[in-house]
Amino acid sequence: MSNDTKNVSRRDFVKGAATGLVAGAFAGMGMYSYSPWAYDRMPDVERKQHDFGSCRSVRITNISETSWFNNAHLIGDIHEAGGLLVNQYTLNWAPFGNGKGSAQGAYEEGIGSIKDLLPHDIEKAWEIQKKLSLHPENPGGYSCLIEVEALDGTIHKYLLDTGWSYSWMNDCFKREGIDQMLRDQEIEALFISHEHWDHFWGLPVTVKYDNRIPLYVHDGFYDEGLQYIKDCGYKGDLTIVDKPVTPIIPGMALLKFDVPIINRVFGETSLAFNIKDKGLVLISGCCHQGILKFADFAFANLKYDNDKFYGIYGGLHISPFEDWDPKYDDLVISLGQWGFERIGCNHCTGHLTAKKFIEAGYPVVRGTARFRSASKDYLGNGDKINFGC
Predict the structure, then answer these.
(1) Could you give the number of structural domains in the chain?
(2) What is the pLDDT of residues 338-365, one digit of tens each?
(3) Where are the transmembrane segments (predicted)?
(4) Among 214, 251, 310, 320, which one is most buried in terms of CB atoms within 10 A?
(5) Does 64 map to a domain?
(6) Which residues contact 78 (CB under 8 A, 6 or more apart)?
(7) Is residue 84 a part of any domain in this protein?
(8) What is the pLDDT of residue 15?
């Protein structure tokens, strides 16, 4: 398979998002970011095979994959505000509510109501925002802990994303001991996959416990997102990711994808790991770039053991609202062609997609459906998956 090397500029956002609207508005959001049939006639490319080293194993703890609790409320709020092209900071969702109703939100007004409370009193800040925002009980969040074992046995800990609701994410952090790990500065960095509400807006919860944790964000972040990092009370080193591949430690790299995403968000970063004697493991937040582009890019640009795709974990953005279009079956078939030995999916992959993977005979690691996760067909809140150990 080949990699699409054409970068999508920010100027193409409206065009790309409009295509998503034509594809069927909310019913088409699962296919919004990619079209598998577009890959059929792409030419082969020369593999660069960047050598980023290897590690012994990767262990993932799902802190929260439940980004919201009611699809109808989320979809309804977006629709009422004007649809997929609306700036997310104007939706009047916590923590940026101003009490003026749908589509009347503004970053400055919303953050102004709580800025002096961040990050030390996130509980009070969230209570204030609950009175000013639409459906304040709906937010949850996406976040996972990644533990990488180096070849010498050293364990490196990282966070991918920091969720949405201050209240929900704080409880989830405490449940998995993340709060204490942050206090003890055991976690070496926080990677924000993209600027969306359910992956990024819970930033004060992380900053409350460690306001200097190294932070990585895509260079497509908008002014509001960059200002929010400052307004959260963050005092650490911020890395704006502007290269396709950024090595982190031996066997671990951050991959950058330029792609327009709904509600005026641009770009996503994902992670790749080379497990010694096993092969490549891919980890995503939402995978808005699409599983085909994700795999194609890794194939074309990374060197990994046995030249084999070993595992994948995260949100794969196929049927996030449990809709199903027959074209999604192409994605299920395409994933099988990579030969993954372990598949851990959740979040915007969708329950229907996980069920399809299982029916196709793929090696899906199932979960326990605890802590408000809805299905045992994928890895829910509090579940773990290991690669290489």
Answers:
(1) 1
(2) 999 999 999 999 889 999 999 999 999 9
(3) 12-34
(4) 251
(5) yes
(6) 26, 84, 86, 91, 262, 263
(7) no
(8) 37
pTM of the model: 0.90
Is 3 a residue whose pLDDT tops 70? Answer: no
Fill in the amino acid letter for 365.
Answer: V
Give me the residues paired with residue 315 across strands.
346
Report which residue type is found at 92.
N
What's the pLDDT tens digit per position in 47-82?
Answer: 888 999 999 999 999 999 999 999 999 999 999 999
Q: Return the closest-CA partner of residue 59 out of 379, 371, 376.
A: 379
Burial of 22 (0-12, 13-18, 19+ CB in 10 A): exposed
- Domain region containing 327: 50-77+142-387
User: How many Å apart are CA 36 and CA 261, to the nearest integer?
Assistant: 17
Please give the structure tokens belonging to residue 324. Answer: 């199903």
- Asked whether the bond before 119 is cis by omega within 30 degrees of 0, the reply is yes
Q: Is-contact 45 242, C-beta < 8 A?
A: no
Q: Which of 103, 175, 113, 189 is nearest to 146 (CA)?
A: 189
Q: Is residue 112 part of a domain?
A: no
* Residues β-bridged to residue 105: none
Kind of pairing between the strands at 279-284 and 309-315: parallel
Write the DSSP string, 163-194: -S-HHHHHHHHHHTTHHHHHHTT-EEEEE---
Residue 249 tokens read as 């430690």
374 domain residue, yes or no: yes
Which of 65, 146, 143 has its CA nearest to residue 311? 146
Going from the C-alpha of 115 to that of each of 134, 173, 208, 233, the distances in angstroms are 19, 22, 13, 9
Angle among Cα 163, 366, 142 to the nearest 5 degrees reads: 5
Half-sphere exposure of 28 (CA within 13 A, CB side): 17
CA separation for the pair 134, 74 (Å, rounded): 9
- 98, 102, 108, 113: CA torsion to nearest 10: 20
User: What is the DSSP-derived secondary structure letter of residue 233?
Assistant: T
CATH of the domain at 150: 3.60.15.10
